[in-house]
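Annotators were shown the component list below and the corresponding predicted structure, then asked to write short factual statements about the assembly.
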Amino acid sequence: MKRAISIIILALFALLGISPIIFLAAGAFMGNQEIMDAIGPVLQTHHGNASWKLLPKFPTMKNLVQLLLDTPEFFQMFWNSVKITGGILAGQFLFGTPAAWGLARYSFRGKKVIYLIYITMMMMPFQVTMLSEYLVLDQMHLLDTSASIILPGIFSTFSVFIIYRFFCGIPEEILEAARIDGAGELQIFFRIGIPLGAAGIISALVLSFLECWNMIEQPMTFLATKSLWPLSLFLPKVDSSNAGVSLCASLIALLPAVLVFLAGQDYFEQGIASSAVKE
Amino acid sequence: MQNMKHATFWLKGLGVLLAAMFLFTVISRATDSITVAKVSVSTPASRKIQHAISAEGRAEKNREISVLTQPDILVRSVLVNAGQRVEKGDVLAILDLAHLEEQFEDVVGEKRALELQNQALEQNRRQEQQSKRKAAARAKSDYHQIIQKNNQAIRKARTAVNKAQRACQKGKDALRNARTALKKVQTETEKKKAPLRQKVEKEKETLTSLEAALSEQRNILAELQKTADAEKQTAKRAIEDAMATPATDHTDDINDISIQKLNHKIRKLSALKKGKGMITASEGGVITAVLTGVGQKTLDTAIFTMTDDRAGLKFIGQIAPKDAKYMSVGDTVTLESAGNQVEAPIASMELDENKEFMNVTALLPADTFSLGETISMALVQESENYPCTLPLTAIYNDNGKKYILAAETEDTVLGKQQVARKIEVKVLEQNDSYAALESDGIKENSKIITDAESFVKAGDRIRLIEKESE
Amino acid sequence: MAKGKKMGWVFVLPSFCGVLVFYLIPFGDVVRRSFLNAVGNGFAGLENYRQVLGNQAFRLAAGNTARFVLVCLPLLLTLSLGVAVLLQNLARKSLLKSAYLVPLAIPAASVVLLWNVVFDNAGLLNGLLSLFHLEGKNWMETDAAFGVLVFSYIWKNLGYDMILWLAGLQGISKSIYEAARVDGAGTWKCFLYITLPNLRTVAFTIVILSFLNSFKVFREAYLVAGSYPQERIYLLQHVFNNWFSELSVDKMAAGSVLLCMVLLLFVLMLQRSWDQE
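Structure shown to annotators:
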């Protein structure tokens, strides 16, 4: 009995969690008329209250087809998102992994300071660093280029921290054994560190992916050229003429994030958990 | 392992999604390149708007003359047709000589009759004048006689009056004497007085009768004078009546005019007679109309109309009334036919009866075109220089509101894109290919869409067709 | 661990250079600018700070942000702990767990549409309320907007905190519970006397992480309500954004430094809590 109640409560919360996906999935296959009937009141074209159905009454691919065939803008933004996200992830892997390794496995002067700096950076909301980022990007003439998003993103310290937590979990004995076998430090990093820390790296990348795919403030601040905008800025300024297409666009925008989430869910959880408890 | 399998499933899903997105990217780009209208653009140029007006026309005679002759004469034969060229002196028609003769005689007879009438009138008038003079003389002598007679009677009456006056005077004296005598014997006795008194009484009675006779004589005189006056008046009137001029009569004058006319006619007719009834052309030219026929009587209006060689040629053409505003009398037009080209000013412009065309005429210089030749007229009218002109294809019309579409570079999600922007314009002047616009709101270097491969509306994305030379 | 001091630097250096170039040095510049006047050439002392602290918008936003944090954190922590505890006892929990984590993956842009439809004056929520004959509100334009913001923060971060709690819960060995049950303790007692005390260190970490995360709610607030939202949800982030678009570099710099210092305090606390683990 208790169990049933708890399951129902949990299920209700869960439903709330995935409600946007249901909402978007249903809306993406609705005809424009049906959408207007449902959310017309919000757009001030209809009276009464908005309503929503879990399943479209007259499923149609029309809006989806229109989005996919007639809206090159959407693809431009989609690939911008892919470019930015891909660039940042690659950079984080390239720079973050060694840094995390260095911080986790070696002791050197200034390590504590650097570590503190990294944690501080990771915790700062964008608004704190906005001005400083703007100043340096301006100096480097990078404003209004994709690099203005990708480069600071690469050096975001959050992934370093996650990977660091995982690298810390590798027992020192394994490394010692390798050293005794005559392995160089680089070899140890590539042969032992990366394979054993893979979960951490993947966790960091999954978290970063979701973060980057969802990035709004940075592109909004640094990109004036619309053709560079990522999908997250495809602001659903819904009006009566584009509601259907906007719903489809929102659905497709969330698909990669959901897929990456589903594929890396375990790593994702581990990554989050690692910030609370050590492995 | 379960985890890995799970993960790869979703990763595959992600891969499929990306592949699909790539595919659709290509497809949507492809559709885009098909659907986005390709347009040609040009920048507004400073230009004069030329209005080319052309018309086909003919060289025609500048003036027509009419051939006249005497009316009401039978036409024996007509020798020319409309359109036929004639030279000066050519016979156009022959009149019936017998009929002409008859007409002549008629006219002469008529004239004679009038002359005779005039003579008769003259004679009558002379006789009348003579009798009038006699009557006047008689009235005058009557007058004198009456005056003489009356004067005599009046003189007699006056004498009678005078006599009566004198008698009256005597009577008065006698009475006075009697009364004096009576006074002298006042102291005397009545016996002595009585005869005297009687005498006074007797004298009084005599005077009274004498005075009565005098007033009678006076009355007679007044009566006589009155009568004399009346008679004198009557006689005077009789003289006046006799002296009065008779009522004027203009018949002879009118007849004189008629006679003059007839004389004129006679001269014409005799000339015709002399010319054996032939009507000839007075000038070289072309017969434009024959207005009589064989067996008909000549009219009092023209029997032929014909052109006059001496007057030269003119161009006549027709233009549409809408073009007329670009043309005015005095404008120099180019007239051209096979091998000939001259410039001439427009002499007149007027609407034809149906108001469908505007007839334009221009005088042709001598010896340039031949009569009837087809001539094309051309006029290029240049406007003032407009700073902002565009090809007519750039102007769109939406319910009478004119607008143009400018290609503007807009920063869109797809990068720099050309987008059509609507600019409302006012057309100042236009011809078949260009329009002059009010330059407000149109930038000098803006690219205006002049031609689109498909329909373009404001806000549409467009692609500019590359120009080879630029 | 102490092998090759130089190697450590070699590994860290590329990343650190990037951090230096993109964050630290420019932030140093920002600190410098925070003491300069607006044009950036004269020393202004603490004038900028005084101005920022006296700024009406800044005060409003700081108050709102503080209230937001104070309302959200307890709510989020208890809710997520409850969910975590309930989940922990379930056998097949992965599906539910996914459902809680999905909001983290859903891009704000995708969800904004839904929030608009739900919270509009004629939206789904008011429609739902009217079914129960309750009077709806114009959620986005009244003080209720604050509630919307709290809701969207909790919706987004419930899964995150839940994972953190679950990690903490996993650290408690089952044997303690078994021993307690043997002693006759009920579920509630177990929770009060075993679970909660054992979670204390983790809880501190979670509080601070949640606090820092609460600054990211700005995305939703911004997307739903724009640059100048309803007064109650005008957050510090809005102030910063608006100063930025006005290019008030002086205020921006001083504000950044101030905010950074406050957050640094919390980061140091977080650091200590980690060290205690």
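Statements collected:
1. The mean pLDDT of chain A is 84.
2. Residues 218 and 277 of chain A are 30 Å apart (CA to CA).
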